[in-house]
Amino acid sequence: MIAALGVAELKLLLRNRTAAALAVLMPLAAGIFFALRMDGEQGGWTMVVTLQLLFSFGFTVYVTVTTALTARRQDLYLKRLRTGAASDLVVLTGILLPVVLLGLAQAVVLLGISVAAGAPMPSRPELLLVAMVGGVALGCAAGVGTSGVTGTAELAQITTAPFFFALIVGGLFGTNGGVEAPVFLVPGTGLGTLIGAAWGGPTDQVGLAALSVAGWTAVATALSVRFFRWDPRG
Amino acid sequence: MEETVIDVADLRCRYGDFEAVRGVDFEVRRGELFALLGTNGAGKTTTMETLEGLRAPFGGTVRVLGLDPFRERAALRSRTGIMLQDSGFPADLTAREMVALWGVTSGRRATEDVLERLDLAHRRDVRIKQLSGGERRRLDLALAVLGRPELLFLDEPTTGLDPESRQRTWQVVRGLLAEGTTVVLTTHYLEEAESLAHRLAILHEGLVAVSGALVDVLAAQPSRISFDLPDRLDVDALPMLSGDVVHRPSGRVEVRTGELQDDMAVLLAWAGREGLRLGRIRAHHASLEDVFHSARTGKEVVAA
């Protein structure tokens, strides 16, 4: 069931040109732009990969999940799916799956472009893996919750802005390490710290960073349970 | 042996402080078509959504195929087909893709070509957004009947359809009934309910105003005779009838009677004897339309 829902969702994403362009081309273009801005100075690459990954989590995953779920609810497609045999969790998983794969593929492609352009390989790849899993999970959970307070797919461009910018700004705070503990309350800081550490940055705050990502994912999940709606008429 | 498929007792549903359904009771038996009628806002769709397991009741109990439709939704799904008031189609899938998806997610595998059955075979590869309103509604019905569910919910299945599509829908529903499917239907078209339903309930402001077998509900309402009285006659000249006689200012006489055949016989024999011509004479049993209007004006009619 999850596979069938996922294939249908992937078709819907790719057939809607605006959504497809926003989800695929926009982060790709931004990521390539960041990579091209580098003129061979080695220290700057950490910043570039941090931005590339956060755009993948923030744009490809978070904004797309919010927009897609809101559009499907508006079409009453979510309500229809609940008249089928799939449980609520299966329906959500099916719809999120292609977005998750798209986000991961995007991240890998962008990192590949950076490496091809001269960026070093991560010295602690396991931390990169933690950041990827955490970033995608956080993007999904926050997207489900945000769609609950988003009336139409067009409004998603506004409702996703605060969390998206918090993710990017937090990531930039965290990427060089040495952050004051309260700054981990900004959602992207933990991810930035993990990515920075994966590329040879300080590792002393890795535990706190992972805790921050897990905490934010838990909060976003709780808010999703509270705010997510299947039917536009409540 | 009449098996109860749906049992609703003292059902109450709320939207915030507003009580949309205020204590509704009825049951649906296996193999019948049960029509849920009422004006907009009477509580039809709210009741349907509760039966379909899409909302939890505020009070009362609901059993569908012996299960709680809200808590045991998963167990019911492969046995029930649901056609919501709004189709809920994603615009960018084709009819074929939607049928394939639904074959998996409804839990009921297609056992026949449902697109063929609803005359949509030639529109298979067209995106749903390019289908006409009638075609979408037919696709919706095709999905609801996919895999032959034993219980089918149809919420206004023919609203907005042209007469030909409506006929086709009725034909499909009759076919399913003949195969033993139980159907719960809501509709605004009373002639649709009159031609399809075995039993019905008319809701009015969240309560059951009328319920029972169609024949009993119709029989509980008086039949009507009406004609123009010849000018020179007074209404007192009429023979003794069992029904109530009303003389309208227009000169037309209306008789509301429980004994249509007897009163007609007396009336016609009298007119024959007297050599009178009764103008524009009409005699008919109560229609669902008559029942519906008296339900709305607040008179409670309960047929056994």
In whole angstroms, the N-to-C terminal distance of chain B is 18 Å
Poorly predicted parts of chain A: none
Low-confidence stretches of chain B: 299-304
> Quaternary arrangement of the chains shown?
heterodimer
The SS-based structural class of chain B is alpha/beta
SS element count, helices of chain A: 10
Biggest sheet strand order of chain B reads 5-6-7-3-8-9-14
What coarse outline of chain B follows from CA principal-axis ratios?
elongated
Shape of chain A: globular
Classify the secondary structure makeup of chain A into a structural class.
Answer: mainly alpha
Number of strands of chain A: 0
The main sheet of chain A comes to: none
Helix-strand pattern of chain B, N to C? EEEHEHEHHHEHEHEEHEEEHEHE
- Rounded to an integer in angstroms, the radius of gyration calculated over CA atoms of chain B is 23 Å
